[in-house]
Structure prediction request, 293 residues.
Amino acid sequence: MKKILLIGSQGQVGQELQRILIPLGNIVTISRPTVDLLKPDSLPDIIQHHQPQVIINAAAYTAVEKAETEPDLALTINSTSPGRIAKVAEKIGAYFIHFSTDYVFDGKKASPYKETDPTNPLNVYGKTKLAGEQLIQQNCQQHLILRTAWIYSSLSKSNFVKTMLQLGQEKAEIFVVADQIGSPTWARDIADVIAKIIYQIAPNITGTYHYTNSGVASWYDFAIAIFEEAQQLGFPLTIKQVVPINTSQYPTLATRPLYSVLSCNKISTVLESHIPHWRIRLRQMLAELYLYT
Prediction:
């Protein structure tokens, strides 16, 4: 039975990992204030105290807009601390699993990004996540970097799905960006993949991999699907119209890639399984959310 240390157990992926991993093995979950990624020097002692065989870092600075005004904080959490964890993992012989993002790419490609494609992040968040990838690659041989995108979960307090549901109950009309394209991804599927890797494949799978649900959508497409599925389930909605707009009509501090679809062929081959479509998983998540709210 593997001893697993999960850092960032209260995030979207972290909560789903707890759900699936706790029944399977010896898992220690830690999050703030027990562990603080703003204090990289504190991490070695915490990790070595537990002597895990597998370390999962599900913690990150994910506030894309705020990162533009807090670059040092984002860099510490997304780069310096993962680099420090990687060094400790190498020292104790642990397998290190870390999550990264589609925002390491600039969105100028017209086909799904492969793991080998050149990176060129457009915003501070993407730059700090890429820097974290590089430190992990330099400092830990037995590592898995899993890039993913557009994550949502019923367990999270805030994500795009829950924001849309709230707006859909409060407003008759909303405006949603229609020219940014990606792949919505259920956090539970990410957790299931990690569990399969840990218990069936690791440490034979190392390096950088992409994982999202299959299919593509714009944020507008995603919003429409949320409302259609939610309405069928009986969520109380007052929304009458979703208006598509361009990114230029919704200015933000952080520049986002217009196309950030990830190719998941590499991990699909390793897992020997079909990756579920995002619309099917959205339907399942909403059904779960409706049942328990």
The first strand starts at residue 3 and ends at 7. The CA atoms of residues 174 and 229 lie 17 Å apart. The chain has a mean pLDDT of 94. The longest helix spans residues 71-92.
